[in-house]
Amino acid sequence: MTDAGSDNTDAIETPEGTETPKTGTAGASANTAEPENPHGAVVRTLADTMLRTALPVTAVTIVIAAVVATVLNGTAGLWGALVGGVVALASSLATFVMMKQSADLPVMFVMAVALGGYVFKILALLVVMMLLREVDALHTLSLALTVLAAVMVWAGAEVVAFKRTKIPTIIPNSQ
């Protein structure tokens, strides 16, 4: 038998006197380890799938927008599209970060984070776009259309990713 206070990370002594493997980090007992939140695991899986699905198609969208904006509006169009792409990616990646950070919270709080995060992102986009329209080096229409296209493509890819993960939707009993 091993001593429960020893540095052995392979097993711990249970109150019944039997040895069981440790599941936590070194020095942590299995009795104090919290079980993994199944909802949190689902949210993290969904967030990862959404990122893997949305990032490549959004990057392609931004490249296409930059090429079109450059052909139509020159260097200002290129810079407008590239800055618009960065703004759209930052906005979209914020969703990924919020999902990962809030995954282990109770479901009601996850929904509050999602709604609050959405409102914050829309307000932040509004402020950023209002500030960027004053920058003479950027073609504002190229910037705006790139943001719009990239955000819409990202959102569409998130829907596709959600459908592919086959995550069950909980329907509460009406009784």
UniProtKB/TrEMBL annotation:
Stretches with biased composition (Low complexity): 14-28
Keywords from the UniProt entry: Membrane, Transmembrane, Transmembrane helix
Membrane-spanning ranges: 54-72, 78-97, 109-132, 138-157
Top-rank taxon: Bacteria
Region of interest (Disordered), ranges: 1-39
Polar residues: bias regions: 1-11
Protein name (database record): ATP synthase protein I
Lineage: Bacteria, Bacillati, Actinomycetota, Actinomycetes, Pseudonocardiales
